Amino acid sequence: MPVLEQPLVIVGDVHFSHGGRPETGQALARLVEAQPGSEIILNGDIFNLSLDAPERDPIDSVLAMLRAEPALKAALRKHLAGSGRLTFVPGNHDAALSDPVLRAPFLAWLELGTAAQATFSPWFVRRGRIHVEHGHVYDPDNAPTHPLVRPTPATEPLGVALTRRFLAPNRAFDFAHATEITPLEALLRAMRAFGTKMPRLLVRYFATSSHFCREAGWRPELARERDLGDELLPRAVQTLGLDLDVLRALLDDRPRPTHESFERSFFRLYFDRIAATLTASAGVSLGVLAKSRSALGLAALSGLYLVESQRRGRNRYEGLPVRRLRQASASVRDITGADTVIFGHTHVAETLPGYLNPGSFTYRAGAPRPYGWVGADGRVERRTLE
User: In this model, does residue 101 exceed pLDDT 60?
Assistant: First the structure.
């Protein structure tokens, strides 16, 4: 006996961008064409809106990216004109997908009427006992203050802010998916990638990250986003399909976003090790030149801090988002009664009892493009588009 009205096809982390490679859209079009009568769930980070300038309208940006994908337009139009369904779930790089205002211009682009089965979820999707969510809410470096409120460029989480303020303006895309490397590894990679331009790029990075760190903390604008999200929560009950108490329990279970704390931002950006390195170097120089025991003592203390910090973990964030989402999937199952939780976000595929992360449809180790599939009988699989 069917437990779902139609099969689900879950695709995440497509990362469309302006001037991107056409094969990504063509591959997604092939997948849509191969799944007639299903619900296609585009599970966050479908669009790289975080590469846009802060003043650009995200709806205009989405439509501009879509206009460059004629094959995808034809496939989606045919899918929705039949018995198929399409659902967008927001991610950290395309939080604007939570805005229902996008539905009308999207359907106009497809040349379809408002009766088409296309929806934009504000947070996650529930289909029976299947829970589909991008997962960035459980990654503090990319989590919004409230999952029902789209951040502004002034309140964006750490990962999105650095992408918009540093990676995009400096075209430093070698670091777009290197959030877990240490400062030394980043420095060596920058030297290889940028050569003589590296010093100037390094100055810009420290200026940007230092500015972000100074901004981090519980500010009035973040409090307003939290309060607005709490006001929207009762209205989200019908859209999200869970009781108000369950939604509140999910909110309470989230980790605190990094950008809400100066201390967390300072350590996440490795400023403690950077400060210790500079202090040790300056202490040694001053101690030798001025024959200052105090300076040499300070250098020794800084060196000990570096040694102890490295001993506890050379890269203290390596693999952390993957582990956090794996743990969050268990919490979501416990809180909501879901049988299976499907996340994206990490670009790392995982298949465990009750948890599936298909991996990125675009950023992948091999040629096949992964996606999640849930049959009408509730069977969950990770599949690939060859």
Answer: yes
